[in-house]
Amino acid sequence: MQITFLGTSSGVPTRSRNVSSIALRLPQRAELWLLDCGEGTQHQLLRSDLKMSQLSRIFITHLHGDHIFGLMGLLASCGLAGNVQRVDLYGPPGLNEYIQAATRYSHTHFSYPVKVHVVQPGIIYEDDEFTVSCSLLHHRITAFGYRIAEKDRPGRFDIEKAQALQIPSGPIYGKLKRGETVTLPDGRVINGNQLCGPTEIGRKIAYCTDTIYSEGAVELAQDADVLIHEATFAHQDADLAFQRLHSTTTMAAQTALVAGAHKLIMTHFSPRYAPGNTIELKDLLHEARAIFPKTDMAYDFMDYGVPRRREAELTPINK
């Protein structure tokens, strides 16, 4: 699982930061998922090493322009290129109407299936490898945060040990690899867990923007390997954050701390903190690290590979 930040500015793009979008690459299944799709996202994808042909799911937090204005352009280009099989869109009420109106007035026709899923708090997608859930955040309009959780997998199967026990190969190996208990033809009962290495703990990503400090964000970030949280404002500008229902650096850090997240990556920064101003982005990073030391600050085209944890590392770092 690799995260690529395609846009890290809030509201408007700057010379160095585009508006909100994050790509999640799932190399084990050759898929690409997007979280939000601000204006210019397809240009950012073209400048990256990501393959647009692998795009399969897009999760939209809310319908403000800096999170959706790139959606129709991206979908239309995918259709013209003819290399996308299907795209599933997830988002709040109104997303389907937005897509329908844009396609109607722009006379756009998709050459591949596009399905819109209107989300409600809870699990919104699940397959054999992943579960995706969402919770309500606290913003000026309906906004959702997302949690993408990879399911735990049995550890490496020890074929040599199985052969030493004279366990016949075939379908039995498959059951043992899954950790199942099987009875052999000779009557022996073998627990598959005894032949597998440490469980591969599923990785968990939480994405929370736009919001002020929210219990929904804390819920999504519980024991997350990485929490991606907006930090539009410095702590000194908390009054603005409350007025506009955006987070400060300290709110993002407090969310990570309370949730027991293992890493915080801040994004969605106001252009007011450009170099040379009274408060700069480096000051925002210092503020957050004072509360939650394992904090980093995202920048456009930053890649982050989500590491795996072993069973011994399951306990949240603040417990």
Automatic annotation (TrEMBL):
Co-factor(s): Zn(2+)
An example Gene Ontology molecular-function term: 3'-tRNA processing endoribonuclease activity
Keywords assigned: Endonuclease, Hydrolase, Metal-binding, Nuclease, tRNA processing, Zinc
Bound cofactor: record note: Binds 2 Zn(2+) ions.
Species of origin: Nodularia spumigena UHCC 0060
Catalytic activity line of the entry: Endonucleolytic cleavage of RNA, removing extra 3' nucleotides from tRNA precursor, generating 3' termini of tRNAs. A 3'-hydroxy group is left at the tRNA terminus and a 5'-phosphoryl group is left at the trailer molecule
Subunit details: Homodimer.
Name the record gives this protein: Ribonuclease Z
Gene: rnz
Positions with a binding annotation for Zn(2+) 2: D66, H67, D210, H268
Stored NCBIfam families: PRK00055.1-3, RNase_Z
Protein EC: 3.1.26.11
Keyword Zinc in annotation: yes
Family: Belongs to the RNase Z family.
Function: Zinc phosphodiesterase, which displays some tRNA 3'-processing endonuclease activity. Probably involved in tRNA maturation, by removing a 3'-trailer from precursor tRNA.
Catalytic residues identified in the record: D66
Positions of Zn(2+) 1 binding: H62, H64, H139, D210
UniProt-listed HAMAP family: RNase_Z_BN (MF_01818)
Matching InterPro entries: RibonucZ/Hydroxyglut_hydro, RNase_Z/BN
Superkingdom assignment: Bacteria
